[in-house]
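Example for tutorial group B:
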């Protein structure tokens, strides 16, 4: 049986509607959180990091459009296929950080703080692995590279660079308990 660690943050409330029927819903009673930076908001560096997350995702999608030698080699394509997981998690939590409700519930705050940094780190490792694997495959196969192979390499390098920048801006995603615990 799975245990949800956030169940203590909610209570079940029963109310009567206009027809006299009992309606049941949950109400949040836990602590509220905000970002450490500028007045509890994400801040400009954090917003730039979220833009980098979208650019990483765009570079990933663009690199998959043409048929390249790198994507035909199993070592590179397998590494690059797993790249979608950290990119998705990073972008999803970045959207929550920018467009989410302030102050945040504990579940949202912990998701942002605990997913963006590890996802950017895994993205760094996977994109570096894809770059190295692509270069090794190109040297071993001895083929002439066309423009699409360079597009793949540039896209992987952009993902690497932007993931490093997101990782360096990790302090902007730290959350603290809000001083006012009401919405």
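The residue assignment follows.
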């Amino acid at each position: 049986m799975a245990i949800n660690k956030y169940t203590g943050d909610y209570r079940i409330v029963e109310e009567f509607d206009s027809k006299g029927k009992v309606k049941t819903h949950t109400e949040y009673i836990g602590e509220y959180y905000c970002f450490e930076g500028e007045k509890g908001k994400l801040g400009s560096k954090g917003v730039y990091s979220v833009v980098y997350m979208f650019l990483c995702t765009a570079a990933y999608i663009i690199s998959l459009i043409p048929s390249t030698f790198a994507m035909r080699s199993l070592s590179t394509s397998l590494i690059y296929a797993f790249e979608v997981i950290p990119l998705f998690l990073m972008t999803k939590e970045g959207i929550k950080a920018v467009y989410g409700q302030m102050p945040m519930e504990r579940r949202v705050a912990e998701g942002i703080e605990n997913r963006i940094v590890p996802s950017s780190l895994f993205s760094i490792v996977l994109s570096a692995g894809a770059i190295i694997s692509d270069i090794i495959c190109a040297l071993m196969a001895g083929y002439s590279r066309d423009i699409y192979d360079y597009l793949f390499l540039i896209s992987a390098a952009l993902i690497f660079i932007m993931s490093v920048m997101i990782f360096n801006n990790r302090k902007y995603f730290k959350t603290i308990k809000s001083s006012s615990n009401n919405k």
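Residues 18 and 109 are 36 Å apart (CA to CA). Compare this with the pattern of hydrophobic and polar residues in the output above.
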